[in-house]
Specification:
Shape: globular
CATH superfamily of the largest domain: Translation factors
Radius of gyration: 21 Å
InterPro entries: FAD-bd_FR_type, FNR_nucleotide-bd, Riboflavin_synthase-like_b-brl, SIP_FAD-bd, SIP_fam, SIP_rossman_dom, UCP028291
Structural class: alpha+beta
Number of strands: 19
Strand order of the largest sheet: 2-3-4-5-1-6
Protein name: DUF2218 domain-containing protein
Strand content: 35-45%
Order of helices and strands: EHEEEEHEEEEEEEEHEEHEEHEHE
Oligomer: single chain
Organism: Endobacterium cereale
Pfam family, one: SIP
Helix content: 10-25%
Number of domains: 3
Largest sheet: 6 strands, antiparallel
GO molecular function, one term: oxidoreductase activity
């Protein structure tokens, strides 16, 4: 790492050892994790984190190539620490307190145009500054979507930062925050394509889908990121996902190496929801149709991933994004087979609403 920008912090959880184990267990699928006695090193695409247990506290040292990556790494570590702590008390102090008005990797984006890719997939093209920062890094971003009267405000009140490094997320009624995939990047125009699934709400608020339906040129949203996993490069890949993961699969096959062989299993409602996916790799797509069945209930992806894994060559990278229960089943299956954790990324892209008693 040629340039080094550092930041140190101290976390005081209820159980430092358990917290360290949770950090390592989570990040092993998203970073290179190197364990040592009472500590670990996380190596990510935005920098490194050194975490050690000292006097029942977690001592954290962030080392990144740019100041912006330091801000993003601090936010990433802080968000995960508090997620792992749950309802338990946790104190997190940094050597430099965050600027309350400086969101990590934030920029405004303006809607340029909209188009229907399929009957239930709408593409929104936005323009923003520094579009090149979305190339060669993570695929996902947080979209900040103004709600209510704020939707018509050309200068929305964006959220700030908390002293512990977390984002001070706004009230959902004023600013909805959702994670989406950048489907493609047009560097010449400085534009990003983002695909939105127009799914049924099941009685829950769907600010992303509602925005996609109503979006018009000139509308302003916020973007934080990119983050998450980047495009996986391997000689052999298995990709599996439903509509929610289709934009990520489309991006990965489009940027895959010509020497790669990809088997993709994509679950959609019917043939009308299929898309043409272009790739320089050797690509075989199996479209799985629910034909009216409820999304997240048919376990089609789980069955096909299991079958494909049985005959996959050694070193195959397996990626899946789907409903939480099915994602957990796929992850458990791969773990039971002893599949290399560095050669898999299994994510819950959404969760079925809980049935009320």
């Amino acid at each position: 790492m040629a340039d080094r920008f550092t930041l140190s912090g101290t976390a005081t959880p209820v159980d430092a050892q358990r917290m360290l184990e949770e950090i390592c267990d989570h990040f092993v699928e998203h970073a290179d994790v190197f364990r040592r006695e009472n500590g670990a090193q996380l190596v990510t695409i935005i920098g490194n984190a050194e975490i050690d247990i000292v006097d029942d506290k977690l001592k954290i040292e962030l080392i990144c190539p740019t100041p912006k990556f330091v801000i993003s790494a601090r936010s990433m570590i802080a968000e995960h620490l508090f997620e792992f702590a749950g309802d338990e008390p946790l104190e997190l102090i940094w050597s430099e307190e965050p600027n309350p008005h400086a969101l990590p990797s934030f920029r405004e984006a303006t809607v340029v145009e909209t188009m229907d890719v399929t009957p239930h997939m709408r593409r929104i093209t936005v323009s923003c500054r520094n579009a090149e920062q979305f190339v060669g890094v993570g695929l996902h971003v947080r979209l900040l979507i103004p709600q209510g009267a704020a939707r018509n405000n050309r200068a929305p009140a964006w959220p700030g930062m908390l002293p512990d490094g977390r984002v001070a997320w706004p009230d959902e009624k004023e600013m909805a925050v959702r994670i989406y995939t950048i489907r493609s990047v047009d560097l010449e125009r400085g534009q990003l394509d983002i695909d939105f699934v127009l799914h049924e709400s099941d009685g829950l608020p769907m600010p992303g889908a509602e925005f996609a339906v109503e979006a018009k040129p000139g509308d302003v949203i916020g973007i934080m990121g990119p983050g998450g996993d980047g495009v996986a490069h391997a000689g052999s890949l298995i990709l599996a996902g439903d509509e929610a993961a289709l934009p990520a699969i489309g991006r990965m096959v489009a940027e895959a190496l010509p020497t790669s062989t990809i088997r993709a299993f994509i679950e959609v409602d019917n043939a009308a929801e299929e898309q043409e996916l272009i790739s320089k790799a050797k690509l075989e797509i199996t479209w799985l149709h629910r034909n009216g069945g409820k999304a997240g209930t048919m376990r089609l992806l789980e069955a096909h991933v299991k079958e494909a894994t049985e005959t996959a060559p050694e070193g195959t990278y397996i990626w899946s994004g789907c409903e939480k229960t099915e994602a957990r089943a796929i992850r458990d299956f791969l773990k039971s087979r002893g599949h290399d954790r560095k050669l898999m990324s299994i994510s819950a892209y959404w969760q079925k609403p809980k049935v009320k008693a």
